[in-house]
Specification:
8 helices
């Protein structure tokens, strides 16, 4: 048995609890005559035993304290949410956000029908329509994200999403 075969056999049976008896004898004979392979086998066995016996020290038990703190914060957040904040999220009422959004949607959509828009769009073509379309899309998407973000709890309560 040469050194490569020796290492192949050692690594092949790495997952087993013990090597088969005949293989252990062959490995013992080879490691008796080859000090380099004997050191490698010793290192391999030591690393296997460290991994098997819990080489890493146990982690401190923070889980219970962290979860208790999260529950306390969630309870106080729910109590605060039931107060004035819920009636007026982000300082603006739900109805005001919806009305402002509808006004913005109607005004941006109506801009396509103005005489100036038709004249400029006709002369510049898609080099004008592409940035206008992107701007309208970004404005409406940003407004929708702010609206949903500031009224998420109210919307989830209204539509029964918990």
């Amino acid at each position: 048995m040469n050194c490569n075969d020796f290492l192949d056999q050692v690594y092949e049976y790495a997952g087993d609890e013990d090597f088969p008896l005949l293989l252990r004898i062959r490995l013992g004979v080879h490691s008796f005559f080859c000090p380099q392979c004997a050191r490698e086998l010793e290192r391999f066995e030591a690393s296997r035993s460290m991994l098997r016996n819990g080489f890493f020290p146990p982690a401190p038990d923070f889980e219970d304290r962290v979860m208790a703190q999260i529950n306390r914060e969630a309870d106080t957040a729910d109590d605060a949410w039931q107060g004035a904040w819920r009636q007026s999220a982000a300082g603006v009422s739900f109805r005001s956000w919806v009305i402002a959004g509808l006004v913005m949607l109607v005004s941006l959509s109506a801009s396509f029908f103005s005489g100036d828009f038709v004249r400029v769009a006709g002369s510049l073509g898609s080099s004008f329509l592409l940035p206008v379309g992107l701007t309208i899309g970004v404005v409406l998407t940003g407004y929708g994200a702010l609206f949903i973000g500031s009224h998420l709890k109210e919307l989830s309560d209204r539509f029964g999403l918990h």
